[in-house]
User: Which sequence fits this backbone?
């Protein structure tokens, strides 16, 4: 690719308005294409490397050409994740207000690590954190952190847990580290998400410290077995429960889990990556009854709230432990001050970071409480419709009770299941992911996108009927 220098003469500080207008045109064209374009990417790996690769230009290239070339080269390799027919990996789209606010976030380029760097960004996070606590039924006095996603939210909540349970036995982990510390054991369900284990590993808590509690056929932790594990020990303990299993959508009985943990001194952490959002729905919040009794919570905004990637949140019922695990100070930093501003670096693992609160604020304000509830309930209704429709697809069996937005199903055998999934994805009509459950291949559909319509569900079902008939 040759270097073009037509943009090099622009005076320093000049705003390239035409570049931003052109970029908006490209973005709108992409969004307008979602209903008729294939959901899957069409380019191969080699094609993308050829289109996007080559040597770095020696001189500057005109920004307009850079953006147009990038859009043209990347387009065949884009998956239509914002489409209403993308049903993979519990991934939402982007609400218009959230996408627009995210564009402004990039233009404003604030760094809300601490208040002095971005006062508006800091206050937006403060306001949004309070809104979320009320919406999801969490303690209003809970501390919170805006992070990259549920993985980092687990890291944050479990770091607070590590501090808390070790402090209770007189060990200062921030000062002394883990070498020589009292052992920590972590009780987890057999169908927990892998990001929990990964966060614990980052915190120096290895697999040998995990005690795996059996689950039922849907993936719910067996509370009587949990009680047995909790009985008769003074070992610092963390319990990890789950609101929304990744395949079946099943919820642990959080009230029973909290009863089992009560009085033991253990810390209860809830993985609510997508499932915690049902708390916003009067019709579904019974699924998370007792969730407010936990000590920490981790969840995503880029799933069911439909804000652009990346966006996760951690909440903690023990702000002192949360802050002790996260805070950092240095002589050159400008922290605190009149009015007691909130310095986000006291609560997050990040120092410099993106001002994620703007997009979350915009999403919540554009939807309101009722809009969030409607989005969640509509998604679950679409999932039930899809599951009901699978009854007319020859050889298909639904494997889970469809309690929220997840449908788990398979065909006669592993080969047929994988082949039908491949045909549907290759057709471009829908994108779903495969999984393995109890040693057998299955397909999982997740309805998480605000744009998913009745027609999208019909098209996806028709694609499976066609693929099954071809097999």
Assistant:
């Amino acid at each position: 690719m040759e270097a073009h220098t037509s943009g090099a003469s622009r005076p320093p500080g000049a705003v390239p308005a035409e570049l931003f207008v052109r970029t908006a045109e490209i973005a709108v064209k992409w969004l307008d294409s979602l209903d008729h374009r294939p959901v899957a990417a069409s380019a191969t790996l080699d094609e993308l490397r050829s289109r996007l690769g080559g040597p770095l230009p020696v001189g500057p290239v005109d920004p307009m050409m850079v953006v147009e070339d990038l859009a043209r080269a990347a387009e065949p390799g884009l998956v239509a994740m914002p489409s209403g027919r993308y049903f993979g990996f519990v991934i939402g789209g982007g609400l218009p207000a959230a996408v627009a606010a995210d564009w402004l976030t990039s233009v404003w380029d604030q760094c809300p690590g601490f208040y002095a760097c971005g006062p508006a960004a800091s206050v937006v996070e403060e306001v949004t954190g309070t809104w979320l606590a009320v919406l999801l039924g969490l303690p209003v006095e809970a501390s919170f952190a805006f992070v990259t996603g549920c993985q980092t939210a687990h890291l944050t909540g479990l770091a607070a847990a590590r501090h808390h349970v070790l402090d209770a036995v007189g060990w200062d982990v921030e000062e002394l580290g883990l070498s020589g510390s009292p052992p920590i054991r972590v009780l987890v369900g057999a169908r927990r998400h892998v990001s929990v284990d990964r966060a614990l590993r980052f915190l120096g808590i290895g697999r040998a410290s995990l005690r795996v509690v059996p689950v039922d056929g849907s993936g719910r932790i067996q509370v009587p077995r949990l009680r047995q594990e909790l009985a008769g020990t003074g070992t610092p303990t963390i319990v990890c429960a789950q609101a929304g299993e990744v395949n079946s959508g099943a919820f642990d009985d959080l009230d029973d889990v909290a009863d089992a943990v009560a009085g033991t001194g253990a810390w209860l952490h809830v993985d609510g990556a997508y499932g915690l959002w049902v708390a916003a729905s009067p019709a579904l919040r019974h699924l998370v009854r007792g969730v407010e009794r936990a000590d920490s919570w981790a969840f995503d905004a880029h799933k069911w709230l439909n804000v652009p990637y990346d966006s996760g949140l951690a909440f903690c019922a023990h702000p002192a432990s949360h802050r002790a695990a996260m805070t950092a100070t240095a002589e050159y930093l400008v922290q605190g001050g009149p009015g007691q501003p909130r310095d986000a670096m006291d609560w997050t693992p990040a120092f410099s970071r993106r001002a994620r609160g703007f997009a979350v604020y915009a999403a919540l304000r554009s939807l309101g409480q009722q809009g969030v509830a409607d989005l969640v309930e509509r998604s679950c209704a679409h999932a039930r419709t899809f599951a009901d429709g699978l009854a007319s697809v020859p050889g298909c069996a639904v494997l889970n009770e469809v309690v929220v937005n997840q449908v788990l199903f398979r065909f006669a055998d592993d080969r047929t299941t994988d082949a039908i999934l491949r045909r549907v994805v290759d057709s471009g009509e829908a994108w779903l992911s495969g999984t393995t459950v109890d040693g057998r291949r299955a397909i999982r559909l997740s309805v998480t996108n605000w744009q998913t319509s009745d027609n999208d569900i019909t098209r996806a079902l028709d694609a499976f009927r066609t693929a099954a008939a071809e097999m």
